[in-house]
Amino acid sequence: MIEQDFICSDSFESSGIVEWNSPSNIALVKYWGKKQNQIPQNPSISFTLSKCYTNTVVEFKPKKNTQNEIYFTFDGKENQDFEKKVNTFIESIDKYFGFLKNHDLYINSKNNFPHSSGIASSASSMSALASCLVDIESQITNNDNNFNLKKKSFISRLGSGSASRSIEGPVTLWGKTDAFKESSDLYAVNISHEVDKIFLDYNNTILIIDPGQKVISSSLGHELMNKNPFSNKRFEIAKNNTERLKDILKSGELDDFITITESEALMIHSLMLSSDPYYILMKPNTLEAIYKVLEFRRETKLHLSFTLDAGSNVHLLYPKSETEIIKKFIDNELLMLCKSKSCIHDHLGNGATKIR
Ligand code: PMV
């Protein structure tokens, strides 16, 4: 499919309300660096989460004035920063939704994970909003579910690249690669049918090392990749890692899975360290937690591994069958490294879901 397939000028005039939950996701092969129009420099693969999600309600009514209006609240309260972001985003996608021109939108969003946990909320919030918009549009189009899923992912991507991977689950891929013939730079695809069952109920415990604001936003991080001296090599490695991970996910080979995901996490942070200007998102306790995970794995031979997104929190990955011992280790050894001893025990899920 090409970009033009997602343009829609059909409209209607009516009122209604839709509500969707959409989860966050954690990348195994990371998206770090992009071209124009949110086209990724390399394919990425992620696990869709389940418990960390955004709930978004969109009410639409025929517009009151000549210009359509968008009203946004976060958790029932006005939030001018978010409102501005949502307005700019919706303006930027209006050619894809004919109905936007003649309707006012009343949007309320809330996250079920702590707002200041340092967990990326752009993936869940953009995919929840995209799900609502495509759902409204589907009331007048005859598009099938397969098309709607692609459009939801396409629109999510324009809001935040990684959000494209939250529409479906448990395992998705975004970005063109010869390894998956249905892959695209424009939207993510569900690759769960090519994944061994050991991964489908994998656990992801997020250690909240530091809930504070990041010193560098991920948009700036992507931009700095344009002049990072190692970027071309990085994009090549990420492409290879995608191909290797495909086989690993299929075989259920946990040791190789661990090697590749941990290497990906450390590599994107090494690119932050080698950017100009350089910046460090890991905190001392991020490294302390990583050391402890490596030591625990050496001693127990269990399959606990870590990954990181663009922040200091540590995402622990482990198979469901090893939950009991690993949770004890988290409680006894890792929680002390977390802000207010907090962590979120999440696991893989199936993506965005309609509430009404
Ligand atoms: O979607 P963005 O622009 O917030 O970028 C996300 C980047 C990482 O979380 C670091 C990696 C990824 O693939 O999710």
Walk me through what this model shows.
The chain has nine helices and 14 strands. The chain has helices at 80-92, 122-137, 145-159, 197-200, 218-224, 231-251, 254-273, 284-300, 323-334, and strands at residues 16-29, 34-35, 39-40, 44-62, 70-74, 77-78, 103-111, 171-174, 188-190, 203-207, 305-308, 314-318, 343-347, 353-354. The strands form three sheets. Strands 1, 4, 5, 6, 7, 8, 9 and 14 form an eight-stranded mixed β-sheet that branches. It has a four-stranded antiparallel β-sheet with strand order 11-12-10-13. It has a two-stranded antiparallel sheet with strand order 2-3. The radius of gyration is 20 Å and the shape is globular. The mean pLDDT is 96. (3R)-3-hydroxy-3-methyl-5-(phosphonooxy)pentanoic acid binds at residues 27, 30-32, 44, 120, 122, 160-162, 218, 222, 268, 309-310.
